[in-house]
Design a protein that fits this description.
Layout lengths: L1 E7 L6 H11 L3 E5 L13 H20 L5 E6 L4 H9 L6 E9 L2 H13 L7 H8 L9 E4 L5 H10 L2 H11 L2
């Protein structure tokens, strides 16, 4: 059975770093960052581009799911609303897949420290700090397993994801079906 990992979290929490590590640790794996599906200049968010990115993501993920070369499909994106997760999952052929939805969360202080470091290095624009901190509490309401990454590095976060017991996944799945 294939495993599909949905790794969500606000900007700067460490999604991409954790997923790159997961990709290296899991045999026969492939990784898609949702941001790659609409990396444009200028970056435009409107109904048309939102629809396009959802279509792009679903198309790629379904191709990965159907490709026999892959057993682990790793996907990350901000996914701060349950409706986003639900819409993506409804558009995927997950009949022969185990889906694992995880939200990376952290304290506001840890997030600020990470983002400020990126801003100083020129990796991110200053406006990301307020936007990301604003989204942080939204993850508490999602039907996902929460992994607090406040005091851990991406390697440790990836290891914790790999060690999560199947029982926890089944419990989360049962809750999401209620």
């Amino acid at each position: 059975m294939k495993k599909v990992y949905f790794i969500g979290g606000t900007m700067g929490v460490g999604k991409t770093s954790v997923c790159q590590i997961l990709k290296r640790k899991l045999d026969k794996s492939v990784f898609l960052d949702g941001d790659w599906c609409w990396d444009a200049h200028p970056f435009v968010v409107n109904p048309e581009t939102k629809e396009m990115v959802m279509d792009n993501i679903c198309h790629l993920l379904n191709n990965f799911i159907h490709c026999p070369a892959y057993e682990h499909i790793i996907f990350c994106w901000v996914m701060h609303e349950q409706a986003i997760i639900d819409r993506l999952l409804a558009s995927l052929d997950t009949r022969d897949c185990e889906v694992k939805c995880i939200s990376l969360v952290c304290s506001g202080d840890a997030l600020s420290e990470r983002l400020l470091r990126d801003i100083r290095r020129g990796i991110r624009q200053a406006d990301v700090l307020e936007r990301s901190l604003h989204r942080l509490p939204l993850y508490e309401h999602l039907k996902t397993i929460k992994l607090d990454v406040s005091g851990i590095d991406p390697e440790t976060a990836a290891e914790r994801i790999l060690r999560m017991q199947d029982r926890a996944w089944r419990e989360r799945q049962a809750q999401s079906n209620d």
